[in-house]
From TrEMBL:
This is Myb/SANT-like domain-containing protein. Residues 17-115 form the Myb/SANT-like domain. Residues 171-185 have a biased composition (Polar residues). Residues 156-206 are annotated as: Disordered. InterPro entries: Myb/SANT-like_dom. PANTHER family: EXPRESSED PROTEIN, MYB_SANT-LIKE DOMAIN-CONTAINING PROTEIN. Residues 196-206 have a biased composition (Basic and acidic residues).
Length: 291
């Protein structure tokens, strides 16, 4: 079934709830897109956004646009920026890496309230599990380090609906306009002041961001190679022996089939092994007839 959008109270537009399953697909596809070279400094290529759109449609029968995906990434950047700022503040120990959350207790409540007075965007993250935090680090850290992070209190806030996980499916351009949520989040500091602070941190963050980007590349490459290693690989002799057991094939057909299976998709040979032996001759003949 297709997932339907919902209408927020007091709103006439339709919003879609992004859930953890959708976010996992988004992370997986984008990490793969890094490996394919579809990520630049600060932005993704159109192919990357389209790959997410296609995968969500294939896996979950959900129809979103490339702009919807871009806006979800803006929400992620905001989330990363808020938490990263807390982590970098000396004397603050709210973030628990094991729990993947900002932990606020009676002991540090006073410090937390003081911090939120200057950074109201942080308030909603108290004691909230950030399920995809590791993915946010890999996908968002480098963008922020090279200057994109300056948007996290302006563009990122403007990209949000009334909830972090609500995506406008009526018009993607809505996210380019300021919202009530965005205007409230300015707090005591102006956008210019926050942007200035971000620029001051950019030089230091750049090295960290570059390192994290390399980690993302390495991780994705490792996962790809690991997947290939786990796929069963059959030797030429194993393939030849199986085909020789199929009655009715000529010596030429056996040789051609063995060479074609050896150089082709391993899944084709796996399928041959899974079908009944009495049906394998027809399967091989059809396989040999393919271009």
């Amino acid at each position: 079934m297709k997932r339907q959008g919902s209408i927020l109270p007091g709103k006439s537009r339709v919003y879609r709830q992004w859930d953890s399953q959708m976010d996992k697909i988004l992370s997986r596809v984008l990490l793969d897109q890094i490996v394919q070279g579809n990520k630049g400094d600060g932005d993704w290529k159109t192919q990357a956004y389209q790959a997410v759109v296609d995968q969500l449609r294939t896996d979950l029968a959900i129809n979103v646009t490339r702009d919807n995906v871009k806006n979800r990434l803006r929400a992620w950047k905001k989330r990363y920026a808020v938490i990263a700022d807390i982590q970098k503040r000396s004397g603050l120990s709210f973030w628990d890496e094991d729990k993947k959350m900002i932990v606020v207790t009676a002991d540090n409540m006073s410090d937390w309230q003081s911090y939120c007075n200057d950074h109201p965007d942080a308030r909603s993250y108290a004691n909230t599990y950030i399920e995809n935090w590791d993915d946010l680090v890999l996908l968002c850290a480098r963008d922020r380090a090279v200057g994109d992070g300056a948007e996290h209190y302006s563009e990122a806030n403007a990209s949000m609906a009334d909830e972090d996980d609500m995506e406008d499916v009526g018009s993607a351009s809505t996210f380019g306009n300021s919202s009530a949520h965005g205007s409230k989040s300015q707090g005591k500091k102006s956008i210019g002041e926050v942007s200035s602070e971000s620029r001051k941190r950019a030089k230091k963050d750049s090295q960290v961001g570059d390192a994290l980007y390399m980690v993302a590349n390495s991780l994705s490459s490792y996962l790809q190679s690991k997947k290939k290693e786990e796929e069963p690989r059959y030797t030429g002799k194993e393939i030849y022996d199986v085909i020789c057991e199929i009655p009715g094939l000529t010596h030429l057909e056996v040789a051609k089939a063995a060479m074609k299976y050896r150089s082709g998709d391993p899944e084709q040979f796996k399928l041959l092994l899974e079908i009944p032996k009495e049906d394998r001759r027809i399967f091989v003949e059809c396989f040999l007839g393919e271009p």
